[in-house]
């Protein structure tokens, strides 16, 4: 996977992802990652002086050590398929809060919503489409990413894991979405895991 302009691609220990990427001494060397979450050997880390750490990987979003996970949702209160269904099955209380937020109009395209779980990772409900039958649009993804980046600090997010937004049931191309994620989140000062689709 090529690095974007100005970024260094830091090789990671095969089969592992860093549990604390900021513990690395960069750019001269990388310390050995502490034993932590397993991942496929396609993990790579991009780093730029004065910026955060961007960790690209394949595998499960739930295997990352991030404090906050991004959940791609619609705005009508349905989590019936895909990654959203996995979130629903893992945390029914989160789903109940999401449905309530949809009914109150707190979740809309371009306006993510934070759920602070008392017993697990926080979840950002990230609308990728209005209705679950709709196709996702790049413009909505880009607007939502800008809003997320603007609110990370005030929401108290310390690390973030982002899936392939809109690339499953939404039908978007991952190679069009990935640059939007990198561009929006690279100015942050927190570790960001970007989880590519398996296909």
Question: Which helices and strands occur, and which strands form pairs?
Answer:
Blueprint: E1 8-10, E2 44-47, E3 53-58, E4 68-73, H1 82-90, H2 92-103, E5 113-115, E6 122-127, H3 138-155, E7 160-162, H4 174-185, E8 192-196
Parallel strand pairs: 3-8, 4-6, 4-7, 7-8
Antiparallel strand pairs: 1-2, 2-3, 5-6
Kindly report the oligomeric state of this protein.
single chain
CATH class of the domain at 63-196: Alpha Beta
Distance between the termini: 15 Å
N-to-C SSE series? Answer: EEEEHHEEHEHE
Corresponding CATH superfamily of the domain at 63-196: Leucine Aminopeptidase, subunit E, domain 1
Number of helices: 4
Q: What fraction of the residues are assigned to beta strands by DSSP?
A: 15-25%
The neighbouring-strand order within the major sheet is 1-2-3-8-7-4-6-5
User: Are there runs of 5+ residues with pLDDT below 50, and where?
Assistant: 10-41
The backbone outline, from C-alpha atoms, is: globular
What would you call the structural class? alpha/beta
């Amino acid at each position: 996977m090529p690095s974007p302009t100005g970024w260094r691609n830091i090789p990671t220990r095969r089969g592992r992802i860093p549990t604390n990427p900021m513990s690395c001494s960069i750019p001269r060397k990388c310390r050995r990652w502490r034993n932590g979450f397993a991942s496929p050997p396609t993990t790579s880390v991009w780093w730029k002086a004065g910026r955060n750490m961007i960790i690209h990987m394949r595998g499960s979003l739930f295997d990352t050590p991030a404090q906050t996970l991004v959940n791609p949702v619609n705005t009508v209160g349905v989590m019936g398929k895909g990654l959203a269904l996995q979130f629903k099955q893992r945390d029914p209380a989160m789903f109940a809060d999401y449905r309530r937020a949809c009914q109150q109009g707190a979740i809309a395209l371009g306006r993510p919503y934070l759920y602070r779980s008392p017993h697990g990772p926080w979840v950002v409900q990230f609308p990728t489409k209005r209705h679950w039958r709709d196709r996702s649009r790049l413009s909505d993804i880009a607007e939502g990413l800008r809003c997320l980046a603007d609110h990370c600090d005030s929401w108290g997010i310390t690390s973030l894991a982002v899936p392939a937004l809109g690339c499953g049931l939404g039908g978007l191309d991952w190679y069009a979405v990935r640059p939007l994620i990198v561009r929006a989140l690279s100015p942050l000062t927190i570790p960001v895991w970007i989880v590519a689709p398996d296909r």
